[in-house]
Request: fold
Amino acid sequence: MKVLITGAAGQLGRALRSSVPDAIGGELVQLITTARQGGNGVRALDLTDAAACRDLVQELRPDWVINAAAYTAVDRAESEPELGWAVNAGAPAVFAEALQGIGGRILQLSTDFVFNGQQGTPYQPSQPVDPLGVYGASKAAGERAVLEKLGGEGRAVVLRTSWVYGPVGKNFLLTMLRLMGEREQLGVVADQVGCPTSTAGLAQACWAVLEHALAGVHHWSDAGAASWYDFAMAIRELALAQGLLQRAAAVRPLTTAEYPTPAQRPSYSLLDCTASRARLQLEPRHWREALAAVLRELPG
Ligand SMILES: NC(=O)c1ccc[n+]([C@@H]2O[C@H](COP(=O)([O-])OP(=O)(O)OC[C@H]3O[C@@H](n4cnc5c(N)ncnc54)[C@H](OP(=O)(O)O)[C@@H]3O)[C@@H](O)[C@H]2O)c1
Reply:
């Protein structure tokens, strides 16, 4: 089984590369990876280059494309929407169109930020989207594109996830560890609720999606719920306990109004993952357990 992974240098891309199963559905896995900058066996692919994306799929004829590449700078997207749309909506559309004639499938990663966060209970995969910003809107368009082009034949799957972090890359955990070591005090938003999701668990879910040949829209996050403030406090507590920090800044809760950002974010974006867990036969860890495991991987 030939699997093409984009975004191989990103958080999820790296976790996928380090957890490739030997076989999927009884077939040996042949992996091809792409990143914006190629090298070391990774092919160069710029997702804004539609012709290059199409040509690569036509050349390789993969059984699956896992599109883990994305424009993920939520605030910056507000000031460069064309780029966000090209990567998050344009590229998935091109991949899906190229796959139409080949017979392959696509796993399109997406986000809790496709929802407006107003309902106050976990979102079901079937609920209508209503994104608040450019990032969420462009990701929602990427979802639509793959489902329109390949969904009818059950060859597109959208896996929405939330608050992704891992031991490498740009993420809340690593930013907090740095700031907590540098500062005396910091404020973190306490009125936005979601669920942190570790790249290790998410990568496992992605491979299970391929194993079970899922189609349609699905949700995956670690278990539980947290505000960004809760997440920061857990990072502080566990990092001190594990000796990753000798001292840590005091953390105080902020309201969203006290911490204005260019992009508006959903105040409540928990994803209901019940159906996907059953279909994938996977139980996620509680986010605090997953966090402790990621912290143990970090150099002291
Ligand atoms: N991060 C989160 O909190 C979060 C939450 C919910 C859903 N998701 C979704 O989960 C998936 C994986 O996210 P992640 O956290 O692994 O993201 P990430 O660490 O930001 O990785 C995304 C990768 O995409 C690459 N990329 C961006 N623009 C590109 C372009 N024009 N051409 C080629 N590559 C390009 C980036 O390369 P450069 O480093 O060179 O820019 C980066 O390596 C994405 O679909 C994302 O939308 C993420």
The longest strand covers residues 105-111.
